[in-house]
Design a protein that fits this description.
The complex is a heterodimer of chains A (230) and B (374). Chain A has 14 helices and no strands. With 230 residues, chain A is mostly helical. Chain A is globular, with a radius of gyration of 20 Å. Chain B is 44% helix and 8% strand. The chains are: A mainly alpha (230), B alpha/beta (374). At the A-B interface, helix 1, helix 3, helix 6, helix 7 and helix 9 of A face helix 3, helix 4, helix 5, helix 6 and helix 7 of B.
Amino acid sequence: MQDVRIREGLKACINCGTCTAICPAAEFYDYDPRVIVSTVQTKDDDAIKGLLKSDTIWYCGECMSCKTRCPRGNAPGLVVIALRSLAQETGYFVQSEKGRQQLAIKRTIGEWILNHGYCLYLENIGTDLHPELGPIWDWQQRNWVAVMERLGAQYQVEGQGCLRKIPDDTLQELRKIFEITGGWSRFEAVEEHSRHIALEMGIEYGTSGREAYFHHVYSANSGNHAKGEE
Amino acid sequence: MSHLTAHGNQINPAQTGTQKVSGKQAVWQEYQKEIANDRYFYVRSCVRQNFFPAAEWTFLKILRDDLGKTVYEHPCHTTCTGIGYHSDIIPLDTLMTVVARQFALMTEAGYENFVPSCVTSFGVYTEVLETWRHFPDVEEKVRRYLKNATGREFEKPGNLAHASDVFYRFRESIASQAKYRLVNQHTGKPLKVVDHIGCHYAKMFPQKGIGGAEYPYVLAGMIDAWGGEAVDYPERRHCCGFGFRQYFVRANRGYSIGCSKKKFNSMQPYEPDMIITNCPGCSLFLDRWQYAISEIEGITYGKDGFGIPVFTFEEVAGLVLGYDPWDIGLQVHQAAIEPLLDKMGVPYDPDKKYSDIQGRPLGRPNKPKVLKVF
């Protein structure tokens, strides 16, 4: 309850349900942000622990439409972000299918930040992982360097510009920030808890690349999440 | 700096101090914002530089060459980590300290007007500054983190505006230099334009966006100034469906495509000629999900089997100013953009579409099974 996002995002919810009415996730998933806020407001530790272990807190898309419409100025989306942080700190995130996906996010976005200085670094990320990117993306991937030059990018060039090479000392500063502020320890916690659950589930886990556990959490879908599904 | 009204007129504080403003005019004034006039510190977008790098090139070129403004990009700036934060792999303290480092680079370079390319970043910078305003102890903690990690110190921006705010401010200047307008050359009628505003532009902090969250005018203002007509359709304010983890993880993508499909179904009866967005992710998803829906369900949303062309606001400004469509990167869109070029009367060389910088052909992409392309 000390998280600034709880202090900013939760002030005496009146359970009106406006957040649920506007929520894109509530339309798609079996999901109700009003219930999440209501549960946190009870301060019932067992009920909150149940949330941390559930798929429920991972359904939100963090679009923050709920913030716009709440008559009390609450932000259920911020409460969800705080709960997700807590789920990773406690390790409860590996108890749910959607929570376990954090390993895939760490291995992609998280590592791209520290290795390349940006959340996305998509050379060699093809339509095998992202088929929706279409044949134009296949063409772009086949001709990556030439296309980036044509489009005015400074791909892997030192200095200014799109997709430029980020200086080593900048990457070292980022790494140091991560070490001091908890970013690095979150990465370690996600890996460690994932390793344990992979062992329990009998799925190959490794740290060098995209082993079976990565592909499992990236693709597994029980079909029990969307509205109308059993 | 003076305030801008919805039509770009400057409000004279002396006048507003002596005249009583009431009704809708008073309400509207609450949703204006300060947008600096010059000397911008620009930070790039993770999504835009991978998928629409020429849009960032176009933004900087127009700002410098057509509008005569100074804009600086620091070679050592990075992501704000916003996509990681909203995918919950980056803690708040880490995000805030990376943001503080960006501000330190701005301070060291002698700038104070901070302009992010990305809408998620704009939301992040706004959220961090608001958090520090409400919790000064958090700001002090972040200053210590940054000093310890990098030795750097920073001033907060004097002005924070999204890149689309900047073009909104100069939309009339761009209009005055226009070579083409958002008008159908065959009928003389305004083109029908869907404006899609990224959620993090104003849904979290409505007072930080032009027109707020309910009636954002940042893109509609450009459409009005450049001769088009904004389409007001039922799901105009619905999210594109990015949802961060909902898109990046394959198992969740039904959420993402479902949101976009809801918007397409809602806008299609109005027969829009084009979609314009200010958020790099929205540009990508509204373009690519049309392709995916055509492959999965055989449905297309434009005329005669084409999609509805999707543009970033930088690309539209470039077209209006007469830039070559392939210089501003329209060849890397999946939904064909040629129908819109033909309506506007913009010339293009089809043989140069898939070429390298010397004009040598790079081969052609495969064609989708259903969605028509040139």
